[in-house]
Design brief:
By secondary structure, the protein is of the alpha+beta class. About 40% of the residues lie in helices and about 20% in strands. A hairpin with a 3-residue loop joins strand 7 and strand 8. Helix 2 packs across helix 5 and helix 4 packs across helix 5.
Length: about 290
Amino acid sequence: MTKTTSRLLATALSSAVLMGAFTLAQAGQASFVVDAQSGQILEASNQDVLNYPASLTKMMTLYLAFEALHGGRLTWDQKLTMSENAESKEPFKLAVGAGRQVTLREAVESIVVLSANDSAVAIAEQLGGSELAFATTMTDKARQLGMTNTVFKNPSGLPDPQQVTTARDMATLGLSLMRDFPEEFKLFSMRGFQFRGMKLRGHNNLMYRYDGVDGIKTGYTDASGYNVVTSALKDGRRVVGVVMGEKTASLRDDKMAGLLDSTLASSSGATASTTPGNQPGVTMTDTQPTK
């Protein structure tokens, strides 16, 4: 057997295993809640089963944008050009037109509030040169953060059969954003923003219905179902929760609200920091999580 044939066979077998694992993931939903201060796992169900991230992917796109800001490779007022590729990404986008520009701040706010696909691609092309190259950087960063089961293939979360993650990994990413970029993390609490004279409202309904929720990101594709990563604070205790694979947005939000009710119910004696910026890095610890 030639080396080329051997490599092709290994790739095919790897893909088959991955797709087989995802078939199992479709059999049920996943959820995960962790105390942001202590790392204690408060609830876990199918937390390590592969699923599609959908627009939760954009959390990593923003992580790398914030990292570039801190490293001096981007500025808030920097202009990003919308390529034809970026402009083609449906359905949610700023739709300014190919060849036109937006600032990085406009791009970031549109991702946070509207989940704008064109903005995510514009950031990726600015930093990586192409979606594919940027996706490789995304996956590399995921490994550095301890996201052992996540593979990124694009910056937006639009469907790709090889782009997979888990509820645990998405919680890790949420905690990492909170820990590494405390000032930028505050942007996730935005319920709307103004873009060139238009007032635009976000569609993360948990922000409106549940007191204490201050982000982070929703996601949906036909394959993934309805996903959400949520940060919530009550009586000094902050948790990060993940719900994946629900059949409707309403069921997803109800599931998350129930998880927050149960995991924040005993928060009166908690000693966690009230601000994400004061939180140290945490190591998740299993302590009799519920199912």
